[in-house]
Design a protein that fits this description.
The complex is a heterodimer of chains A (193) and B (303). By secondary structure, chain A is of the alpha/beta class. Chain A has a single domain, classed as Rossmann fold. Helices cover 23% and strands 27% of the residues of chain A. Chain A is built from five helices and ten strands, in the order αβααβαββββββββα. In chain A, a hairpin with a 7-residue loop joins strand 8 and strand 9. Chain B contains 13 helices and nine strands. In chain B, strand 4, helix 5 and strand 5 form a beta-alpha-beta unit. In chain B, helix 2 packs parallel to helix 4 and helix 8 crosses helix 9. Classes of the chains: A alpha/beta (193), B alpha/beta (303). Strand 5 of chain A pairs antiparallel with strand 1 of chain B, so a sheet runs across the interface.
Chain lengths: 193, 303
């Protein structure tokens, strides 16, 4: 559990309800011995900056290369992406891990009053998932090795990719940690085995 | 201004879960007061999770006197255009028209704030009616639960804004968190009387008893001036920190802003706190709270 900034406690509660042991990661040495990492929702600029300053970019890239699984929700998905659109110019480029072969657009649905929740069809789940989109990003395009697990069709707009998987990487535009529904976290724990 | 707006694709906006969930994303972060688009850019680059757009920081409101109101919409729009992080802005207590205006501007969060001059001495805004979420100040648990009952999606300590003195924020944090611990320990048959004594909604008292926390995010505000102040509030058990005058009234705002951001993440790591507290230049001067006459105390506004 990357615990630099954001809603990390909610992820922790859900993972623990599934029987996982969870540790908060703030520095590279905290990754030792873990099988997976969740990067939570929060502000992607803030989390990215704190990752850079404390050497977590390379540490997480090495962690994934060594066989671990990584899941990013909302801001976490932005941080996993190969390319990020909509970063503030004062940042130069958005700090990101570049692990998942996808392009992400920040704040794709507008400001907070445009945030919403919606029941979402997810590949592999029999019933719809209650997905909360909060100033959410969308996945604009994905590379060949990326499996699209869910899309959302807004009214009068093109269909948007909102949940993807690539090998041991999982990324969602929405926040499963804000529900009591553990099915997305179950999917992630499955990638760790 | 309806609370739930279902559309044909079963989408719902502005539900309590969406508003409160947004506030969850600020946790472990620092929300900074800014008065210009340039300051907003500095705050974003330093790692602010959101900025609070206002015309004068509390230290200047305190100095200048007069009536403090909602900021000029043109200035708020400039700040919204300048940054990619959420933008908050303040309205006077009870001034629901200022809130309607901020919602129309696309502000992400509204602070119904005692730092501005109250517009209504009896009633706060009915916040549940708005699509935009609200944060409100509280000195104790009863006040916090009344604001949540009205629809606030986030609570902060009042502290004593514009003083650079953390003592009141500590007092309010200890009071709220202490009241929560007391309620947790009470047997359930006593909760109605607790609700009466606190002047708080019964169902929210029951929630606190069952969960040991507020049903919304709880931040520190009012007097935080150093990384150590910020880490102190986190160790006391709050979810994040607002810094008002403390950053742009100090001698090196950028450096201090970055240090406070790191202090909120690494709040329980004294080695890192020691390192980031070095050479930050002069903090804001600060005011001894005891030297304020009662009318100068902003925390006494609101009820």
């Amino acid at each position: 559990m990357l615990a630099l900034q954001g809603a990390f406690r909610e992820h922790k509660t859900l993972l623990e309800s599934l029987g996982a042991t969870v540790r908060e990661v703030r520095l590279p040495q905290h990754l030792t011995g873990l099988g997976g990492l969740v990067i939570p929702g929060g502000e992607s600029t803030v989390i990215g900056k704190l990752m850079e300053e404390y050497g977590l970019m390379e540490a997480i890239q090495d962690f994934y290369a060594s066989g671990a699984a990584v899941y990013g929700s909302c801001a976490g998905a932005i941080l996993l992406a190969r390319e990020v659109l909509g970063a503030p110019p004062q940042f130069g480029t958005q700090p990101a891990l570049g692990l998942l072969d996808m392009t992400v657009q920040r704040n794709a649905f507008g400001r907070q009053i445009d945030s919403f929740d919606v029941p979402l069809e997810v590949r592999g789940l029999t019933e719809a998932f209650p997905a909360a989109f909060i100033r959410a990003p969308v996945i604009v395009s994905v590379g060949e090795g990326v499996e699209v697990l869910s899309t959302y069709q807004p009214e009068h707009h093109p269909e948007q990719i909102v949940l993807v998987r690539q090998e041991r990487l999982l990324a969602s535009s929405f926040h499963p940690e804000l529900t009591r529904d553990p099915r997305i976290h179950q999917l992630f724990l499955g990638l760790m085995e | 201004m309806t609370e739930h707006t279902p559309s044909s694709d079963h989408k719902q906006t502005a539900t309590p879960a969406i508003k409160g969930g947004f506030a969850q994303m600020f946790k472990g972060g620092v929300i900074m007061d800014v008065v210009t688009a340039d300051q907003a850019r500095i705050a974003e680059a330093a790692g602010a999770t959101a900025v609070m757009a206002l015309e004068r920081v509390p230290a200047d409101i305190r100095k200048d006197g007069g009536v403090a109101r909602m900021s000029d919409p043109s200035m708020i729009k400039e700040i919204i255009a300048a940054v990619s992080i959420p933008v908050m802005a303040k309205v006077r207590i009870g001034h629901f028209v200022e809130a309607q205006i901020l919602q129309a501007l696309g502000v992400d969060f509204i602070d119904e704030s005692e730092v501005l001059t109250p517009a209504d001495e009896s009633y706060h805004i009915e916040k549940a009616k708005f699509k935009v979420p609200f944060v409100c100040g509280a000195k104790n648990l009863g006040e916090a639960l009344r604001r949540i009952g009205e629809g606030a999606s986030m609570i902060r300590t009042k502290g004593e804004a514009g003083t650079g003195n953390v003592v009141e924020a500590v007092r309010h944090a200890r009071t709220v968190l202490g009241d929560i611990r007391t309620i947790q320990a009470r047997p359930s048959e006593e909760l109605m009387t607790v609700a009466r004594d606190l002047q708080a909604p019964y169902d929210l008292v029951q929630y606190v008893h069952a969960h040991g926390t507020l049903p919304v995010v709880n931040f520190a505000a009012g007097g935080v001036a150093t990384p150590a102040d910020a880490a102190l509030m986190m160790q006391l058990g709050l979810d994040g920190v607002f810094v008002g005058s403390g950053i742009f009234k100090s001698s090196e705002p950028e450096k201090r802003a970055r240090a406070i951001v790191k202090a909120v993440t690494h709040f329980d790591n004294p080695d890192i706190l020691a390192e980031i507290s070095e050479n930050l230049g002069a903090p804001m001067t600060g005011i001894n709270i005891d030297s304020l006459i009662p009318e100068e105390r902003l925390a006494s506004r609101g009820w």
